[in-house]
Specification:
Number of helices: 11
Pfam families: Peripla_BP_4 (PF13407)
Radius of gyration: 19 Å
Strand content: 15-25%
Structural class: alpha/beta
Keywords: Signal
Protein name: Monosaccharide ABC transporter substrate-binding protein, CUT2 family
CATH class of the largest domain: Alpha Beta
Family: Belongs to the bacterial solute-binding protein 2 family.
GO molecular function: carbohydrate binding
Number of strands: 13
Mean pLDDT: 92
Largest sheet: 7 strands, mixed
CATH superfamily of the largest domain: Response regulator
Length: about 325
């Protein structure tokens, strides 16, 4: 499948009803870059290299760079918990004089100082997926995580729990902006349903599937009337899904993202809903935004990228296939 076809398919997700654009701009607000006066070199630094999600961001950035005559170097810590490593990578990129920085911040406050150094050196900065607080980057491309998680919660409450029951949350960490926003949004979405109760505190898997498996296994024993476990990213959903499968439990798992392991669990009916983001588009349009900034164009402070609510019922649809291909370009639906 061609990358241009993938990009067009991703853009088609803008028509998906379950998305939170609100007051934010969309990628349509970005200008098509003119041919740059020189071959710019950009640095892409994500939270880790341990998830297909970040490789999809990289793939999008590489495609845009190729199209517009730039190059992109990819760096990421092996672990999403290596904050010192990520800070060092940003500092090194600034010292090396990169022409632009694309960053998915492990911590919204801890990365402020190195990003300020980049901006002071007149290096444009675009954050993707996980931003800064306050948002000092030139622009921030991301899913509306609170809105998407709230939409997932409302779907879960209405269609999977029928307005009553118990749920628990497995998050991936409590320091990344996404790790903060998604449980917040999910709990906000559940508030309208007085017959639904959250069981226990939020548990943290630290982006480790085996830790999520252990946490969820304990939940299944500790809360025998549990109906749903929400996993706040791909790693946090896979552990609970495996726990449910091993226990032959009727507990439903809902989550974020589209690791191919998650898709298998959706097909099996263990993961009953997952929010699919647009990682390829984030990487692609981050490069476009850097080129626009260098060309003197004004960027929106925040750009919302679309999301799609995947369920077993819509898994075979064209929209679902387009959404999954944001993560896995060669994905082919069965049948």
């Amino acid at each position: 499948m061609s990358r241009i076809t993938l990009l067009l398919a991703g853009a088609a997700l803008l028509a998906v009803p379950l998305q939170a654009m609100a007051k934010d701009a969309t990628v349509a607000a970005l200008a098509t870059p003119a041919k740059p006066a020189k071959a710019y070199h950009f640095e892409l630094i994500t939270k880790s290299n341990a998830s297909p999600y970040w490789l999809a961001v990289r793939s999008g950035a590489d495609e845009a760079a190729k199209k517009y005559g730039a190059t992109v170097s990819f760096e990421a810590p092996a672990s999403g918990l290596d904050l010192a490593g990520q800070i060092g990578m940003v500092n090194n990129a600034v010292t090396a004089g990169t022409d632009g920085l694309i960053l998915a911040a492990q911590n919204p406050q801890a990365l402020l100082k190195p990003v300020k150094s980049a901006l002071a050196a007149h290096i444009p900065v675009v954050t993707v997926d996980s931003g800064l607080s306050p948002n000092i980057a030139d622009t921030f491309l991301a899913t509306s995580n609170i809105g998407a998680a709230a939409a997932l919660a409302k779907y879960t409450a209405a269609h999977l729990m029928h307005g009553k029951g118990q749920y628990a949350i497995v998050d991936f960490n409590h320091t990344a902006s996404t790790g903060i926003a998604r449980p917040k949004g999910f709990m906000q979405g559940m508030k309208a349903y007085t017959g639904i109760k959250r069981m226990g505190p939020i548990q943290y898997s630290q982006n480790d599937v085996s830790t999520g498996l252990r946490i969820a296994t304990t939940m299944l024993t500790q809360y025998p009337k549990l109906d749903v476990i929400f996993g706040a990213n791909d790693r946090a959903a896979l552990g609970p899904a495996e726990a449910v499968q091993r226990a032959h439990s009727k507990v439903k798992v809902v989550g974020f993202d589209a690791d191919l392991g998650e898709i298998a669990y959706v097909k099996a009916g263990i993961i009953q809903a997952s929010i699919l983001q647009s990682p390829y588009d984030m990487g692609y349009y981050a490069v476009v935004a850097l080129l626009d900034k260098i060309a003197g164009k004004t960027l929106p402070k925040r750009i919302s990228t679309p999301y799609f609510l995947l369920t077993p019922a819509n898994l075979g649809s064209a929209k679902a296939t387009a959404a999954i291909r944001q993560y896995a370009p060669d994905y082919k639906p069965a049948g």
